[in-house]
């Protein structure tokens, strides 16, 4: 990654924009840190899990299975299944980084979470920092990763003092709504989000959190179908155009 002025500007832009949503990490991170302690990992184990996994949903599922007495292998596999959506994110980013060095691709993979992916998609859609995409991405990651570890640490050491009825984890979907909504620029994207959201609610009770993955697939398929329909309608209008004037 070149170290020039443009690189530094991109890095600072990624960090600055991410700071706006970083506080939303605090409640869910505290919940995950507390859950890890309750699962028997201890305070240091909870912090290590946050730093190495950097995956809130997977951490939550892993600790839930551990608390229920499930075999550790089942708990780990369940956490991996929950994070299958990262494969979708990776597939979306892959065409842009195909020529990158292996070290750079490892950095893309290591810090890939919902928020860094959304910020990267927004950057790409706006055509910003095209020559310094990794710097922008790492600027975002350098805010989110320390914040996540710190939030887990706070939850591990002080989470038991918080009232359970606060439902702090609810702030996470709110932050996603705030990030995704400005990115919905056309009818196809809005249809994808609406169908995917409805599917997510209806399939929420599926085991191993598979409802989230299924909802993503349903939303994508709905978006593709809607886009195909719109294209067909436009083509039909174009084909009818010359005939309409010949009366």
Q: Could you walk me through the main structural features you see in this protein, from its secondary elements to its overall organization?
A:
The structure is a single chain. With 247 residues, this protein is mainly α. The chain folds into two domains: 5-161, no CATH class; 184-240. The protein contains twelve helices and no strands. It has helices at residues 5-19, 25-38, 42-53, 56-67, 72-82, 85-97, 102-110, 114-126, 133-158, 171-180, 187-202, 210-244. α2 packs across α9 (133-158), α4 (56-67) packs antiparallel against α5 (72-82) and α11 packs antiparallel against α12. The termini are far apart. The mean pLDDT is 82.
Question: Outline of this structure?
Answer:
The protein contains twelve helices and no strands. With 247 residues, the chain is mainly alpha-helical. α1 packs parallel to α9 and α2 packs parallel to α4.
Which percent bin holds the helix content? over 70%
Count of folded domains:
2
- The N- and C-terminal alpha carbons lie at a distance of 63 Å
> What class would the helix/strand composition place it in?
mainly alpha
Q: How many helices does DSSP assign?
A: 12
How much is the average pLDDT?
82
Segments where pLDDT lies below 50 for 5+ residues? none
Largest sheet: none
Strand content of the residues, in percent? under 5%
Number of strands: 0
Work out the radius of gyration.
21 Å
What order do the helices and strands follow?
A: HHHHHHHHHHHH
């Amino acid at each position: 990654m070149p170290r020039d002025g443009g690189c530094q500007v991109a890095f600072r832009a990624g960090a600055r924009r991410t700071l706006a949503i970083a506080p939303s990490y605090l409640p869910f991170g505290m919940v995950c840190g507390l859950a890890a302690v309750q699962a028997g990992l201890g305070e240091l184990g909870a912090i290590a899990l946050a730093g190495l996994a950097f995956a809130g949903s997977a951490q939550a599922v892993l600790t839930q299975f551990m608390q229920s007495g499930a075999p550790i292998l089942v708990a780990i596999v369940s956490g991996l299944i929950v994070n299958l959506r990262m494969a979708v994110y990776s597939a979306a980013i892959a065409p842009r980084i195909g020529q990158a060095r292996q070290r750079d691709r490892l950095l893309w993979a290591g810090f890939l979470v919902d928020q860094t992916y959304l910020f990267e998609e927004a950057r790409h859609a706006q055509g910003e920092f095209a020559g310094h995409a990794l710097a922008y991405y790492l600027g975002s990651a350098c805010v989110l990763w320390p914040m996540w570890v710190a939030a887990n640490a706070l939850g591990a050491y002080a989470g038991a003092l918080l009232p359970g009825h606060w439902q702090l984890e609810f702030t996470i979907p709110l932050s996603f709504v705030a990030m995704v909504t400005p990115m919905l620029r056309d009818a196809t994207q809005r249809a994808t989000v609406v169908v995917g959201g409805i599917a997510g609610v209806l399939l929420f009770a599926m085991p191993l959190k598979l409802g989230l993955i299924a909802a993503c697939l349903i939303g994508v398929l709905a978006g593709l179908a809607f886009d195909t329909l719109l294209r067909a309608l436009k083509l039909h209008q174009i084909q009818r155009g010359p005939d309409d004037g010949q009366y």
